[in-house]
Design goal:
InterPro entries: APAF1_C, Apaf_helical, CARD, DEATH-like_dom_sf, NB-ARC, P-loop_NTPase, Quino_amine_DH_bsu, Quinoprotein_ADH-like_sf. It is a single chain. With 1147 residues, the chain is of the alpha+beta class. The chain has 32 helices and 56 strands. Among the domains are: 103 residues, Death Domain, Fas, CATH 1.10.533.10; 177 residues, Rossmann fold (3-Layer(aba) Sandwich); 269 residues, 7 Propeller (Methylamine Dehydrogenase, Chain H); 174 residues, Methylamine Dehydrogenase, Chain H (7 Propeller), CATH 2.130.10.10. Helices cover 30% and strands 27% of the residues. A 5-stranded parallel sheet has the order 2-3-4-1-5, sandwiched between helices. The chain starts with a helix and ends with a strand.
């Protein structure tokens, strides 16, 4: 960066740090290519806005003129005009030609120096790796003042030699640090005689060049021994070339390197990073990544076949991914394709089949074929370590393991394993992730493929050994520490069993409820579901279906903390399920030891509504979509993140912090390679779908032009929707600013359309059916003929709900509609009939989408879940749903439930329906007479009978939203008492068993205890932080339980009003409530030892300890009331989607 620009930044630093929001500016700078994703992550990791701003400026000061200009433009775009004016006068002038010349280092002087020193020229096919080159140059600058060693290390074929040559192709580096020249010597695997010949050749070359510069100097005879050659080279480097650089390429052996320990400046390339330990002097090192970035690798292939990366066949990208961007493999394949340009599919298949001997022919590499290059690295190991290295064949690709995993396999101490691994790492045969403690280790895919091919016949026995060693080490039960070793066994034990063909043991493990519970608690349910999908072919189909269905429908519950009781969840499975059978046996056994479990006895009438329930985010989910191959789902929402997970299991594949505000929509590109997101922060971003990094190949409008932006700016309000066209030609966005932008992929121009109302949603439709569907925010969706614009059908939904979204099925005439009353409806366009109600969400449904084949339907909601439904199996609209107001009769074990249904009919199978009015009617049911009790000023909340002592007269208590309690004579209708109880609405009232007291609770966050003799307040109970919605006296009258809208339950001493317990105050669930919602009902057991509460779910509490004994999770939520049998063994309630629950204690 120019000195003037740097000074200006330093002078303005304080003002910039105080005001700028770095996250807003970095999007622009990444789009300009002056900031990398890793640099952005490091800046975002700072805890405060000001620290992020300071980190960005510190980074900017180390960059060039282009970065300064990009930063200035970002300030302008983000309305920091006053700050931009501080930098304006120091804007540098950038010459593209000068920048290119500088980056190439292509001056005549540099070319001459490198040519004299034998430095190889750039390969014909070359792609720059600027970050690595700059890292090596930075280390070389440290050799300016004193001799030392710079080691460039990496696995076979990672491009170390090309990188070393490129790093010295710099005019400033040579003139400032190495004016004596740069001298290149290729080594390889040599014996002492060959090494002597190489040093003799180098000495002769140096003397010859010295004589050309100074004719008075004479040539010496060639040194006769290695020791003499070392001394001759020392003399030349210290006296004739004192400030020169010696580059030693491809060093294998420390004994070879010692021959060059002559106090000079050395850059060496090697596969073994530990080689420099044997020499003296200062040392530094640079690790070379094993693979190129995908765009770099595609550029190399394009150069070999004289094409453009955008026009390469699809197999090109697959080849790069298969070899993880290995420069060696990409170059070998590219050279072969130059001769046979039609063999893309053949060479991809060859890589996939691990036929490395067929990947051969490259004049620029020492080995004839890929397998020879791989084998050469392994041969340098000792025989003992070679056998251990072959054991690594059992590892899975892309999996990092701690040393403790191999300590189980090898029966060694973890420290001994780490010593072995250190040898592998030093020789670039294994990679170490130093960001974790303890360290994690992994193999490159090529190394693993090579091992698998070499050890093909012994794989099954090796996997068997892994399983047996695990069983021996953990004979008392699986590890539960939660560390990396524990996670490995839970994730991959089934993999090793399957590979070892231990079918019976795999069956016993995966069909064990104990294994399900432990693995779900440690890793979550998605990995379990994925196991049942992956190994389905070798497992019993029926039993596998039982476990997979249980996990798919309860996965969101198994993500909760505290972790739920898996046995209780499993008791809700059908009676025919193996999961239920195991759960019932365990529940019965635990019940004998005092455990409390509930069996849902009427569940047989209920069919599964969803195929999969996933909770991918903490917060509302605004959008979710299938990939075009149907295997993945992307979701986004108020968490500001984008997540991609498997559609079969919910297993997370990728996740990224996508925007600085709510992410409102996400969409896959037609080839599933890219993902677009849009946000309330007014930006649209396009992401690489395989890695979820902002794609270097994508842009504002032109996805295939590397120089284009990948973040779109231009909308003035939140961007509500984005989608790709089916042919990948256009990207369109709609915004609350009233504009719809459509841009061409092949040009950077965009077109704006102004809408009459804020743009909410849009879609591109291929011409399968000639109709389109639009939504009206009120309560209807309309179907139009695309050609004539005539309305074919108007779908009217409930007047109490608004239409949030709709989507047409690509394979049928079905339309899915998302509604605000927590439901999804399916309609048939041809018959104009509603075909199904998809009930199960607990809050507003924001989006729906069919899978590409129409077999599945996904929906996303404010309840933090994404649900996947099977289109042909969801409930039809003829299903009857009960309303929550109800009554129950318990009679000698028989249960009669009376309730109103959604068609306003009274059903005699559950719960009584009470109509709420602003006055009360008292009927003498035998005579039909009615007494009207009037006096409340607002709606009457409820009423209760009060029997007073000593007269034993029965009065009626009624309480209302007007904050009063009124006492009525039931015979005459006379109002006996009018008590102003609270400053807010009275929400609940309960009478003590002896009739001496009654309690009231209110929206004013208080509860009160009243005397029925004096009608005065006995106790004022303060402490709740929200509306107190329910209360109940214990049967002995000594305790009062109160519950509030934050899900908190408090137990009070009735005698003096002191607080006894707060039930599980520390355990909040993911819905940010102690109870999943309001506490709506409370009941004590007859012996006063157990308290029952309802809210978002049902809980049983130990009264003395205030601890939860059991939790029952209904399918719906918002339970209003629960009915309890006299012996406290049967419980009946209805949830908000109309499902009836009859629960009985397991004996």
């Amino acid at each position: 960066m120019e000195e003037g620009a740097r000074s200006c930044l330093l002078q303005s630093r304080s003002s910039l740090e105080q005001d700028i929001r770095a996250s807003y500016l970095m999007d622009h700078m990444i789009s300009d290519g002056v900031l990398t994703g890793d640099e952005e992550d490091r800046i975002r990791s700072k805890p405060t806005r000001r620290e992020q701003a300071a980190a960005l400026l510190e980074l900017l000061l180390r960059k060039d003129n282009q970065a300064y200009i990009s930063f200035y433009n970002a300030l302008i775009r983000e309305s920091y005009g006053d700050l931009a004016s501080l930098l304006h006068n120091s804007l540098p002038l950038v010459s593209p030609e000068a920048e290119k010349s500088f980056s190439d280092g292509g001056t005549r002087h540099v070319q001459a120096v490198l040519s004299e020193g034998g430095v190889p020229q750039r390969p014909v096919v070359f792609v720059s790796r600027p970050a690595l080159v700059n890292r090596v140059r930075e280390k070389l600058y440290h050799l300016q003042k004193e001799p030392g060693w710079v080691t460039v290390f990496g696995m076979a074929g990672s491009g170390k030699s090309v990188l070393a040559a490129e790093s010295v192709r710099d005019h400033a580096l040579i003139t400032e640090c190495f004016p004596g020249g740069v001298h290149w010597l290729s080594i390889g695997q040599l014996d002492r005689a060959d090494l002597l010949v190489r040093i003799q050749s180098l000495c002769f070359r140096l003397e010859q060049q010295s004589q050309e510069k100074d004719p008075s100097s004479s040539l010496h005879r060639s040194p006769g021994s290695l020791e003499e050659a070392k001394e001759r080279l020392r003399f030349l480097m210290l006296h004739r070339y004192p400030r020169s650089l010696l580059i030693l390429d491809d060093i294998w052996d420390s004994s070879v390197l010692k021959a060059f320990d002559i106090q000079c400046r050395v850059l060496l390339t090697t596969r073994d990073r530990s080689l420099a330990d044997c020499v003296s002097g200062s040392k530094s090192e640079v690790a070379v990544e094993s693979g190129l970035e995908e765009d770099q690798a595609l550029e190399i292939l394009a150069l070999y076949v004289n094409g453009k990366p955008q026009r390469l066949p699809e197999q090109a990208r697959s080849i790069v991914r298969e070899c993880k961007g290995s420069p060696l493999v990409v170059s070998l394949v590219g050279a072969l394709l130059r001769e046979f340009p039609d063999r893309w599919a053949y060479y991809l298949h060859t890589l996939q089949q691990k036929k490395f001997k067929r990947i051969r022919k490259s004049s620029s590499y020492d080995y004839d074929a890929l397998d020879q290059a791989m084998a050469a690295s392994i041969q340098v190991l000792s025989e003992e370590h070679r056998e251990l290295y072959i054991d690594l064949t059992v590892l899975e690709k892309d999996v990092k393991v701690p040393a403790k995993v191999l300590s189980v396999l090898w029966d060694l101490e973890p420290e001994e394993v780490e010593d072995v691994f250190q040898d592998f790492v030093n020789k670039s045969l294994l990679f170490r992730d130093c960001h974790h403690r303890p360290y994690l280790y992994y193999l490159h895919d090529l190394q693993l493929d090579f091992l698998a091919e070499m050890n093909r016949s012994g794989l099954e026995s090796l996997h068997t050994k892994v399983v047996r060693q695990y069983q021996q080490r953990y004979s008392q039960g699986p590890p539960t520490s939660g560390d990396e070793e524990c996670l490995y066994w839970f994730r991959f034990l089934t993999y090793h069993m399957a590979k070892a063909n231990l079918t019976q043991e795999l069956y016993s493990l995966m069909f064990s409820l104990d294994w399900v519970r432990t693995k779900a608690q440690i890793m979550g349910p998605a990995h379990l579901i994925n196991d049942y999908v992956e190994y389905g072919a070798i497992l019993d189909k029926e039993v596998r279906g039982h476990f997979q269905e249980f996990l798919s429908l309860n996965g969101h519950q198994l993500e909760q903390r505290p972790f739920p009781d898996v046995v209780q969840l499993a008791l809700s499975q059908p009676d025919s399920s193996e999961v239920y059978r195991q759960a019932l046996l365990q529940a019965q056994e635990r019940a004998t030891r005092g455990g409390l479990y509930l069996d849902w006895v009427n569940k047989s009438s209920l069919k599964s509504l969803s195929r999969l329930v996933v909770q991918p985010h903490q917060g509302s989910i605004y959008s979710a979509c299938f990939s075009h191959d149907g295997t993945k789902i992307a979701s986004c929402g108020s968490s500001k993140t984008l997540r991609v997970f498997k559609s079969t299991s919910g297993e997370k594949l990728l996740e990224i912090q996508a925007h600085d505000d709510d992410v409102l929509c996400c969409a896959f590109s037609p080839d599933d390679h890219l993902l677009a997101t849009c946000s309330s922060d007014r930006k649209v971003k396009v992401w690489d779908g395989s890695r979820l990094s902002v794609s270097n190949l994508c842009c504002l409008w032109n996805i295939n032009k590397p120089s284009s932006q990948n973040t779109m700016f231009g909308h003035l309000e939140p961007v509500n929707h984005c989608c790709f066209s089916p042919d990948d030609v256009y990207l369109s966005t709609s915004s609350s600013d009233g504009t719809l932008k459509v841009g061409g992929v092949t040009s950077i121009r965009d077109h704006s359309f102004y809408l009459d109302s804020p743009g909410q949603s849009m879609s591109w439709k291929e011409q399968v059916y000639n109709y389109g569907v639009v939504t009206d925010p009120s309560c209807c969706s309309q179907v139009f003929d695309v050609e004539t614009a005539a309305m074919l059908l108007e779908i009217r939904t409930s007047r109490l709900s608004t239409v949030q979204y709709c989507h047409a099925c690509p394979s049928s005439k079905l339309v899915a509609i998302a509604l605000s009353h927590y439901a999804v409806e399916l309609w048939d366009i041809e018959t104009s009939k509603k075909m199904a109600d998809c009930s199960g969400h607990l809050s507003w449904v924001h989006g729906v989408q069919f899978s590409p084949d129409g077999s599945l339907l996904l929906s996303c909601s404010d309840d933090q879940t994404v649900r996947v439904w099977e289109t042909n199996k969801v409930h039809t609209s003829s299903a009857v749903c009960l309303k929550r107001d109800s009554d129950v009769l318990f009679n000698n074990g028989d249960i009669t439930v009376v309730a109103a249904d959604n068609r306003n009919r009274l059903q005699v199978r559950g719960l009584g329906w009470t109509h709420t009015r602003t006055h009360n009617d008292v009927w003498r049911w035998r005579t039909g007479e009615c007494v009207v009790l009037e006096g409340h000023k607002e709606q009457v909340r409820c009423f209760s009978l009060l029997t007073t002592s000593p007269s034993s007269e029965t009065h009626l208590l009624s309480w209302s939203f007007d904050g009063t309690i009124k006492v009525w004579d039931m015979s005459s209708g006379e109002r006996l008492q009018d008590l102003v109880c609270h400053q807010g609405a009275v929400l609940a009232c309960d009478v003590s068993p002896d009739g001496q007291l009654f309690a009231t609770t209110s929206a004013d966050k208080t509860a009160k205890v009243w005397s029925s003799a004096s009608w005065e307040c006995v106790c004022l109970l303060n402490g709740h932080q929200d509306c107190v919605r329910s209360c109940r006296f214990s049967w002995d009258g000594r305790r009062l339980a109160t519950g509030d809208d934050n899900g908190e339950i408090r137990l009070w001493n009735v005698k003096d009003g002191t607080l006894l317990k707060i039930c599980s105050r520390e355990n909040k669930d993911a819905m940010d409530s102690l109870h999943g919602g309001w506490v709506t009902d409370l009941h004590f057991s007859p012996d006063n030892t157990v308290l029952l509460s309802t809210g978002g779910y049902i809980k049983w509490w130990n009264v003395e300890k205030g601890e939860a004994l059991q939790t029952f999770y209904p399918t719906g939520a918002n339970l209003k009331r629960i009915h309890v049998s006299p012996d406290f063994s049967t419980f009946v309630t209805i949830d908000n989607i109309g499902i009836l629950y009859i629960l009985k204690k397991v004996e």
